[in-house]
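Hi support team,

I'm filing this because I wasn't sure whether my run with nickel (II) ion finished correctly. The job status page said complete, but I'd like someone to confirm that the output block is well-formed before I use it downstream. Pasting the exact inputs I used:
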Amino acid sequence: MPLTRFSISVDSKLIERFDTKIKTEKCPTRSKAIGDLIRASLVKDEWKYGEEVAGAIVLLYDHHKRNIVEKITDLQHDYNDNIISTQHIHLDHDNCLEIVAVKGKANRIKEIESVLKSVKGLKHCSLAATSTGKELA
Ligand code: NI
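And here is everything the job wrote out:
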């Protein structure tokens, strides 16, 4: 991919603070940091405008809770067109961590997150929203 060089003008204090931030986060260069910000903004728009996206929904629950495993499995079967993989980890005697990899239209993925989140007894549900990567360099 060819690179484009460009210069920008920003407030000195702002860039000073930004440089401190990227140094703390061990980002190797300002260029990478700016590129990451641009990609994050574009991914946000993919979700905002209902484009084809990808992500992971992370579920945490106690498998002893009544019917919770059956309910979560039923819902995953309902959305099998968008669920591309599921990983189940037995964290300890009671707690299960489930990672549900998803791909599809943003609104559909948000719907899957909502229905999973609404399962009674679920301890936590979190969506890591990313992109299919097709439009990102
Ligand atoms: Ni388990």
